[in-house]
Design a protein that fits this description.
58 residues; alpha+beta; two-stranded antiparallel ribbon; 14% helix
Length: 58
């Protein structure tokens, strides 16, 4: 468990603990755009999802 200390101008933390832990180990990455050359390829390679403006769900 990580314990933090901080003393700033307006507040301070003493023995602050980061609990509970996050539910996910990492956040999903989404890429948005319509570029056929780079955007869709980058979304396929790096992202968990892709979103394009002005395109209906069908």
């Amino acid at each position: 468990m990580k314990v933090s200390e901080f003393a700033g101008k307006h507040f301070q933390l003493n023995d602050a603990r980061n609990n509970p832990k996050p539910l996910r180990r990492r956040l999903p990455i989404w890429i948005g755009g319509l570029g056929e050359k780079r955007t869709i390829q980058a979304a396929a390679k790096y992202a968990d999802g892709w979103n394009a403006p002005y395109i209906g769900p069908e």
